[in-house]
Amino acid sequence: MINITNLSFNYKNNLPIFKNVSFSMKNGIYGLLGENGVGKTTLLHIISGLRFPKNGNCRVFNYESAQRTPAMLSQLYFLPDEFHTPSMSIGSYAKYNAVFYPHFSKEQFNSYLNEFQVDGDKNMMEMSFGQRKKAMIAFALALNTPIVLLDEPTNGLDIPSKAQFRSILSSLFTEDKCVIISTHQVRDLENLIDPIIILDQNQVLINNTVEEITQKLYFSRTPSKPQDALYTEQILQGYSSVQINEIQQESTLNIEVLFNAAISNKAKMRELFNA
Ligand SMILES: Nc1ncnc2c1ncn2[C@@H]1O[C@H](COP(=O)(O)OP(=O)(O)OP(=O)(O)O)[C@@H](O)[C@H]1O
């Protein structure tokens, strides 16, 4: 659905954010992870055509994203982390903006607002950050675009709203959708995101499904520290570790531990995942 080929990008007079990067994204709820400043938001901007590659290209379906053709824009919605909302209700906002998206469902929109307990008639200028965010998430998801880009969607959401967000997203996800969620709040999205992309300076370190990751890496919690661990974190009950999965044991992915293991073993991760 999204093909990035030999992409290079830098902001004016700045060091490159991406250097000759190629990768693709198919269907799935992608978790886009990376340290602060590595380029997650920039990548979402490039995919949605808000920033242009310096070299190479980014194609969304068969459209060059930089051209921002109406046909491409109707297939994709990008919800930034922070945004300005006009002085109107989310109901009016939807009325004026949903016309650009052929699969918008008013029924879904109302049901998501209801689930989030957001008043569709209240002026968004009079809402808290979290209420505004939920209003915009309800709008974004009710558009039913095949591609949805969400930058830190759980930022500002209270604990019940995070659970509602997960449940709405899982209920509307279908095999023909590509949702990309850039986040630092991986615990909010555990058991939801798959595949996982980890960006490293100028490059993609990992772009793999959870199954591929757990085939190559073994995640454990043990009372004592495993000798051959790639990464170990002390926890209350002992150690949470990542080892190379030499004998194909099954384990449950721990995204935070994966991320820390990846960042502290970049060369090994490249070798393992061929990224
Ligand atoms: N408009 C801009 N002009 C110049 N540099 C910029 C601009 N926007 C971002 N940058 C720089 O580009 C780099 C990537 O920024 P970006 O916001 O994409 O990172 P990020 O991975 O989303 O970070 P975070 O996790 O902190 O949100 C950072 O070093 C940032 O300082």
From TrEMBL:
<keyword id="KW-0067">ATP-binding</keyword>
<dbReference type="Pfam" id="PF00005">
    <property type="entry name" value="ABC_tran"/>
</dbReference>
<keyword id="KW-0547">Nucleotide-binding</keyword>
<protein>
    <submittedName>
        <fullName>ABC-2 type transport system ATP-binding protein</fullName>
    </submittedName>
</protein>
<dbReference type="GO" id="GO:0005524">
    <property type="term" value="F:ATP binding"/>
</dbReference>
<dbReference type="GO" id="GO:0016887">
    <property type="term" value="F:ATP hydrolysis activity"/>
</dbReference>
<feature type="domain" description="ABC transporter">
    <location>
        <begin position="2"/>
        <end position="226"/>
    </location>
</feature>
<dbReference type="InterPro" id="IPR003593">
    <property type="entry name" value="AAA+_ATPase"/>
</dbReference>
<dbReference type="InterPro" id="IPR027417">
    <property type="entry name" value="P-loop_NTPase"/>
</dbReference>
<keyword id="KW-0813">Transport</keyword>
<dbReference type="InterPro" id="IPR051782">
    <property type="entry name" value="ABC_Transporter_VariousFunc"/>
</dbReference>
<dbReference type="InterPro" id="IPR003439">
    <property type="entry name" value="ABC_transporter-like_ATP-bd"/>
</dbReference>
